[in-house]
Amino acid sequence: MELASAHLHKGQVPWGGLLLTASLLASWSPPTTGQVTIEAMPPQVAEDNDVLLLVHNLTQRLASFAWFKENTISTNNEITRFVTATNETITGPAYSGREIIYRNGSLLIQRVTKNYMGVYILEMTDERYRRTEATVQFHVYPLLLKSNITSNNSNPVEGDDSVSLTCESYTDPDDITYLWSRNGESLSEGDRLKLSEGNRTLTLLNVTRNDTGPYVCETRNPVSVNRSDPFSLNIIYGPDTPIISPSDIYLHPGSNLNLSCHAASNPPAQYFWLINEKPHASSQELFIPNITTNNSGTYTCFVNNSVTGLNRTTVKNITVLEPLSKPTLKVTNTTVKELDSVTLTCVLNDIGANIRWLFNSQSLQLTERMTLSQNDSILRIDPIKREDAGEYQCEISNPVSVEISNSIKMDVLWEVTSEISQSTNPQPPTTIGLLLTTLLTRWMTSHTLS
């Protein structure tokens, strides 16, 4: 069967309107026996697009077939009719000029609007004037325009205000689905998130700075998807407690004091510096070159948010310390007898320095025989033992310098007692006092000779 269309207006059909028809009917073949069915292609149509009501299994022995709108067969609802015997197309009262009927019964409707949506009836009349019907339905939806997000509060304050964001779609809101996202993540109702008006409005309760966004509203209907431009909130907050950096609080004379203060705040905070509670500068940075001990004191960073009316402060104590001078180590006696006592004194000119005692270049491990006094500047060993012999030093330090004293070598003498018993010539006990180093030398010599 030829697939040419039969219509009025001298066969003038716009090429664009036939593109869908050409693609869907090109493979049409003579019908086979079976029930007539109609398929809307597509069943959901975007406004100003074409829809084809494609008929399947139409018999060749029909006298005529006609299309009706509004789910009722009546003269007023007739769109168009095709008479097989004369190969003639007749239009009815419901014909709009956008419909094209084909010999296989199919109907093409071009550039549909929402008024074309609904149920259509195909009435088929055979050669004996018996009538049968088939119906089809399609829906028409608008192509969604880009939506826009509006807010009921342009400058919400953190913790105090709530904000409602509305998705303005500029399209008939029927059959539109609204989806919200923030920072690319989908949003749903929660403790501080509420959706209303069919998800068209998103309400943020007690906003925080983390609610800034950006937000995107996505609109959907069966034929299109569109997204708004990103929308961010200008949330007013702060200032938070300021942080002063660097963390150093001890400096030495001649160095530069360079402090920086930062506090999270929107709008940005105003910064003020006070030194020893006296105003000094209105800036975020504080720089004092070539400082002296006179620059020791309290440094306060004061921050203020002019919109929230809140202010915060942080205080930092800065101490300028002179470098330490080398201490001197003194001892009552560098050679002592075992079980006697000895006192070592670390003489220093710097008040407040920390003192650490060294033994053979290692930190001295105090025993129950050792005591420290006068801020650890005096070390007393009582009684002293041979294992205490060695090199002693004291180390002094403050946060900016370290100094080590001269070293003192301590020698410990101990007594060796021997009893010589002979059966024929007994001898009285003899006590000999020797240096440890002398005893060791003799012992090594005797063993070498033997």
UniProtKB/TrEMBL annotation:
InterPro entries, sorted: CEA_cell_adhesion, Ig-like_dom, Ig-like_dom_sf, Ig-like_fold, Ig_sub, Ig_sub2, Ig_V-set
Query: Which GO molecular function annotations are given, in alphabetical order?
Result: protein tyrosine kinase binding
Residues annotated as domain Ig-like: 142-234, 239-319, 327-405
Q: Where is the signal peptide?
A: 1-34
GO cellular component terms given for this protein: cell surface; plasma membrane
Chloroplast is among the record's keywords? no
In terms of PROSITE patterns, this protein maps to: IG_LIKE
Q: In its UniProt record, which GO terms are filed under biological process?
A: negative regulation of cell population proliferation; regulation of immune system process; signal transduction
The similarity annotation says: Belongs to the immunoglobulin superfamily. CEA family.
Output this protein's name. Carcinoembryonic antigen-related cell adhesion molecule 1 isoform X5
Q: State the organism of origin.
A: Mus caroli (Ryukyu mouse)
